[in-house]
Design goal:
With 127 residues, the chain is mainly beta. It is built from no helices and 11 strands. Strands 2, 4, 5, 6, 9, 10 and 11 form a 7-stranded mixed β-sheet that branches. The N and C termini lie far apart (40 Å).
Length: 127
């Protein structure tokens, strides 16, 4: 059974950091591109960051560029999103998603391109 489980969300003060984890089971991440999305109340799901199946190519939305870092640990079958310099604007539910990809350096930013989704983890940035 294919499953993605996010963890690492929580409450953090402005300027703080969090590391989100996306652990995969039922498949190996080596052949999957992964995306991190966020969604606020009444808003659509937007891509924050994405990584290719090889891990060699990454994407960051302009709003997080220079603050967030996405990376894969294939040994742990987990993808991480390191979030630094957090602001209240980053408050949202964060989701990871996976899609099988034969293209080692392609990433994807449209939610409809992904096949599997985690349950989401809440990130709240507030003083």
């Amino acid at each position: 059974q294919v499953q993605l489980v996010e963890s690492g969300g929580g409450l953090v003060q402005p300027g703080g950091s969090l590391r989100l984890s996306c652990a995969a089971s039922g498949f190996t991440l080596d052949n999957y591109a992964i995306g991190w999305f966020r969604q606020g109340p009444g808003k659509g799901r937007e891509a924050v960051s994405a990584i290719s199946s090889s891990g060699g190519s990454t994407y960051y939305d302009d709003s997080v560029k220079g603050r967030f870092n996405i990376f894969k640990n294939n040994a742990k079958n987990t993808v991480y999103l390191q979030m630094n310099g957090l602001s209240p604007d980053d408050t949202d539910v964060y989701y990871c998603a996976a899609v099988p990809s034969p293209y080692p350096n392609n990433w994807f930013v449209a939610s409809h391109e992904y096949d599997y989704w985690g349950q989401g983890t809440q990130v709240t940035v507030s003083s």
